[in-house]
Amino acid sequence: MTRNLSSGLLLLLIATTLVWTQAGLAADDNLLKNGNFEKRQSQSLPMGWQAFSSDKNHWYGTFSREDASTGSSSVSFLNSDKKVDYQGIFQPVRVKPGQRFEFSVYVANDPDHPLSGLSHGQLSIEWFDAQGKELDRSWSQAWGTHTSQEKWVKYAMVGTAPAKAVQGNFVITFFSGGETTGGFVLDDAAVIKTK
Ligand SMILES: [Ca+2]
């Protein structure tokens, strides 16, 4: 699957920010480690990322050979037969109040096991103070059953670190809510400082 963005899909949904341009990121600009998911920490977890879920933080995702750019690996978010309400991965980034960040990923519906029912994925940023208390949380537009199986689509959001924030957790969550099996593949996650 190649990255071939189309502006004909997924329009008109309420978005924090939805950007249709291809990412022209220099590697140094991306504050996330291993955003292209080419390096593995275990059989299923990409290096540099932490996993969580409603099932004792067990991670049911795995890797896919579908790739959004030039690598050979992406992350496959799967809803197994188990009743997992949500699961995901995240990375913490050091921030200062007032700094603005764009958080983006490329997503495609899993052609073999497409999303079903109300299952959906979403980006979020959780802001924490120096004591580890969550100050605020903001969300991107969701992707779901309408998401293309043919093309990679970029989802992006912009967030501004609130007063007292020292850390932002950049989170990708799959809400499956006990729905039937299905999932999506995701690649090229990036967090960049923006104006
Ligand atoms: Ca990749």
Quickly list its features:
five-stranded antiparallel β-sheet, 195 residues, mainly beta, binds calcium ion
Compact summary:
It contains no helices and ten strands. It has strands spanning 50-53, 62-64, 74-79, 86-94, 100-109, 120-128, 134-139, 153-160, 167-175, 182-194. The radius of gyration is 16 Å and the shape is globular.
Bound molecules: calcium ion
Order of helices and strands: EEEEEEEEEE
- In the sheet with the most strands, the strands line up as 1-4-9-6-7
Domain tally:
1
CATH C-level class is Mainly Beta
CATH domain topology: Jelly Rolls
Assign the CATH superfamily: Galactose-binding domain-like
Report the radius of gyration as a whole number of Å.
Answer: 16 Å
Give the biggest beta sheet. Answer: 5 strands, antiparallel
Number of strands: 10
Question: How would you classify the helix and strand content by structural class?
Answer: mainly beta
Give the CA-based shape: globular
Strand content: 35-45%
- The amount of helix comes to under 10%
- Compute the average pLDDT: 86
Report the CATH architecture: Sandwich
Spans where pLDDT lies below 50 across 5 or more residues? 5-23
Number of helices: 0
Distance between the termini: 32 Å
Task: Explain the overall architecture.
With 195 residues, the protein is an all-beta fold. The chain has a single domain (34-194), classed as Sandwich (Jelly Rolls). Helix content is 0%, strand content 39%. It has no helices and 10 strands. It has strands spanning 50-53, 62-64, 74-79, 86-94, 100-109, 120-128, 134-139, 153-160, 167-175, 182-194. The strands form 2 sheets. A 5-stranded antiparallel sheet has the order 1-4-9-6-7, with no helix packed on it. A hairpin with a 5-residue loop joins strand 6 and strand 7. The relative contact order is 0.29.
